[in-house]
Each structure stands twice: as C-alpha cells, then as structure tokens.
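Whiteboard transcription, Tuesday session. T.W. wrote the structure tokens on the left side:
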C-alpha cells in the first residue's frame, strides 16, 4: 500500500487549487495509515517511515479546519504551503524501510500510542501556526495572526496532554515519570518555549511581528525536538 503514500504527494500539491482536493490528499494518507495499522495490529508509530508519514498526515489533518474557515477561503498560497509541508514529509518518509515488527514490551501500551499521536498532532499545529505567521508577515492581515494563536494554543494543549501521557507510559515502562534523556530535555524546552510564546499575545499589537516570527522559530525548535534529537543525539526516544 506504499503507493497510497506516494499518491498523496501530488494530490497535496494540487490541493492549492481546491480545498476538496486537499481533503482528498488527507483521506488518501489516512487510508494508507489505516492499512498499515490493520496489518500491524497497532498504530504505525515505529521507525522513520511510519513516523514521518504520520507527521505528514497530521499536518494535513490539522490544517483542514483552518483552511475551511471563512478567513482562509481564498488563501491559495497558504493552502499550497500546508500541502507542500505535508508533501515534503511524506516524500521524506519514502526512502526508509517499513518496520513490521510487533511492539517491544516497553512500548506495548496504549499510553505510548496516545503519547506519540498527541505529540504529532501538536507538532503539526505548530507547523500550521508557523505558516500562518509567515502569511501574516507577507500580508499583514490581523486575522492570520489570530489563527496562528489559535493553532499554537490548540497544539500546546495537545502537547501538554502528550507530556502527561508520556509520563504515565514512562512510569509503566521504567518505573519513573521522567528520565533526563536528550529527547525529554528538548521536550521540556519546547513546552516552555510555547508557554512563553502564548503569553506574548497579551503584549498587544506592538508585538505582532515578533509574535509571528517567534511562531516560525517555534516550529524550528519543534523539528529539532522531533528529528534533530533522533539524528544527532543518543536517546531512548530515538525512532
């Protein structure tokens, strides 16, 4: 069923023309993930290919509610940006092999799946927020900044729940709620960053551009937390 993942890439890119096409791309990727999950008997969340495909689908899924708002009805450029971001990570997943092994005992719990799924939903919303911030810097429309705040706040809520479920999983797996691994350290940095970022909204319009730029920086921190730590640091949370 890997052809479904491949097929989603051009559909995402053509989704800039019509919102239903973008929704179709999300559906194609959901079918791919569902077929993987049914075959594995679990959520496909192990290994680079599955996590990158899940991240790609999360971006498309989290972007949909924003793209169907009245404020973004005519924003083809933003729709293309969201599609390009989802397509990029789908394409990035393709060179990696699929891992069809059962979950190791340490991961074989619903708390692990909940923890990872919520984290990817949060990462996706931080990405959508970064694109909305970039659109605000280009067009200066205040409504875009309001949507960026909404995306970041929803993502922050998902991320906070991910940390709670991750702590519960860690207790069952290792007997402790927190291990000072590089992944957990950068997770706390990311959570603190968005805690401060969301409070900046109270500073008023004088901080509008700074808020938009920090939303973009936040997604860079997000990508390092997800990919950078796995690539450059040894951690029990690596792929």
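and on the right, the sequence the group agreed on:
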């Amino acid at each position: 069923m890997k052809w479904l993942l491949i097929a989603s890439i051009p559909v995402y890119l053509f989704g800039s023309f019509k919102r239903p096409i973008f929704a179709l791309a999300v559906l194609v990727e959901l079918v791919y993930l569902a077929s993987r999950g049914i075959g594995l008997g679990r959520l496909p969340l192990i290994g680079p290919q599955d996590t990158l495909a899940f991240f790609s689908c999360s971006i498309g899924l989290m972007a949909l509610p924003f793209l169907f708002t009245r404020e973004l009805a005519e924003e083809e450029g933003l729709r293309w940006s969201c599609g390009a971001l989802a397509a990029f990570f789908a394409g990035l997943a393709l060179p990696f092999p699929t891992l069809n092994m059962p979950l190791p005992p340490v991961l074989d719990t619903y708390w692990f799946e909940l923890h990872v799924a919520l984290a990817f939903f949060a990462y996706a919303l931080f990405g959508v927020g970064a694109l909305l911030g970039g659109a605000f810097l280009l067009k200066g429309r205040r409504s875009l900044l309001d949507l960026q705040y909404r995306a970041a706040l929803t993502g922050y809520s998902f991320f906070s729940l991910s940390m709670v479920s991750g702590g519960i999983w860690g207790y069952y797996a290792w007997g402790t709620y927190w291990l000072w691994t590089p992944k957990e350290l950068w997770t706390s940095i990311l959570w603190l960053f968005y805690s401060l970022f969301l409070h900046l909204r109270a500073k008023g319009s004088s901080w509008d551009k700074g808020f938009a730029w920090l939303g973009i920086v936040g997604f860079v921190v997000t990508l390092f937390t997800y990919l950078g730590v796995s690539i450059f640091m040894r951690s029990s949370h690596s792929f």
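Someone added at the bottom: Helices lie at 2-14, 19-40, 48-67, 76-93, 110-139, 142-174, 182-199, 208-232.
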